[in-house]
Amino acid sequence: MNVLFIxxxxxxxxxxxxxxxxxxxxxxxxxHDVEFVDCIKENIPPENFAENVIxxxxxxxxxxxxxxxxxxLRNVKAxxxxxxxxxxxxxxxxxxxxxTTAPEEAMKDFGDMVDYAFAGEGELGFPKFVDAxxxxxxxxxxxxxxxxxxxxxxxxxxxxxxxxxxxEELDNVGKIAWDIINPQTYPxxxxxxxxxxxxxxxxxxxxxxxxxxxxxxxxxMSGSALRHYSVDYILKEIKMLYDDYGIREIHIVDDNFTxxxxxxxxxxxxxxxxxxxISLAMPNGVRMDWLDDEILVLMKKAGMYMVTVAxxxxxxxxxxLMRKGTTVAKIRRCVEKIKDHGxxxxxxxxxxxxxxxxxxxxxxxxxSLELDLQRANYFTYLPxxxxxxxxxxxxxxxxxxxxxxxxxxxxxxxxPKHMSRERLLKTKKKxxxxxxxxxxxxxxxxxxxxxxxxxxxxxxxxCHWMLMNPEKEAAA
Length: 476
Description:
By secondary structure, the chain is α/β, with parallel strands linked by helices. The protein has helices at 19-28, 49-54, 73-86, 97-101, 103-110, 126-135, 138-141, 170-173, 178-181, 218-222, 231-245, 261-274, 293-302, 316-322, 328-340, 358-370, 388-396, 421-436, 439-446, 452-467, 470-475, and strands at residues 2-7, 33-38, 63-67, 91-95, 116-118, 148-151, 157-159, 200-203, 206-207, 227-228, 249-252, 279-281, 306-312, 344-351, 375-380. The protein folds into two domains: 2-159, Rossmann fold (3-Layer(aba) Sandwich), CATH 3.40.50.2300; 167-475, Alpha-Beta Horseshoe (pyruvate-formate lyase- activating enzyme), CATH 3.80.30.20. The protein contains 21 helices and 15 strands. It is globular and about 60 Å long.
């Protein structure tokens, strides 16, 4: 079988390798030919996908597998349409966060453009599925492929129960085909806006999240129990990336790296002991309630140059609604503690959470300006399928006017019923302006621009966030 893995173009600015697709590719490469295309990195428009990617270049492809996040939907549909118009017999397979959190809805939405789908972690079922396709006996082994979904000939949906990869198997099952995604070919500032060294590679050390934040789909994606790769495995991966790919900065993209403190400390101590001189970043942020003095010291020694925290809001009422398990006062103390260890601090904030008032949004902006932060990201709330807040909005009928074609953290896809989209987006723009145009912050960040190419990237991102017009984006 010739299998082509696709990371689709989307509305986001982040350009980083897909670890999920690279893991699946590694699991089948001993029996099948695999190839990977990153439409974001290569700037491949979705409407002409078959013309640009398949025709004359990959005419021997048998199966195309596409990673799908909810904010990929518009472009994924365009890619699927292009594929099926080019060759209706080409097998299309989708998987990822959107399929996992809204499986039946996604299958109905894609219709006959999708032949098969995988919900949940695909490592256990996907290799068996590809073998079954090659052997022509998918229906016979479908029950042995966790997460597999497809429509039978009678129109009924076949869906196999999802399963999580056991922690003791992660080292073997979760290996990444680095030579297929080539992390050293990706641009600077992949996940965040700034970096210290280059090239950069992302790694993941843990899976699972026991927290119940109402807006987050992490538990639906990877379960509520924390699982992790072995410390030895992670350190060998970092050393291999350093030696074989010239990687000089590692981005740990876990949801909960610091939750298992002994494990996190062992990983950091191992990095220190290797003495590679690499830089570290955690662009997804860390839980503030799992930061003690010891781990902050280790993070600093290991090469961490900034600590990112998910603050989300500046109002205790909204934090309680979000089930964040913290308060404004605790957040202040945590940021001060991080600063005491000599770190710069970046933070995430959400604007337009359900029932949030204009006054509360203004409180969040003021709070962000009062904290000793060097960078801040202000996102508009997204009702991610499968989350508690999404389900509540569905029940109340508030999602009838959701803009799925502009389902992006900056676009105001959802607007609380008492707000206007125009004012929500203006508030977001005001937040960015008030934070970054302060002379101290502006010049501090300007001094950390590495080169003209980096400046161009930052300027383009800032303009995109400030000037984003959802109506024009949809028409583009």
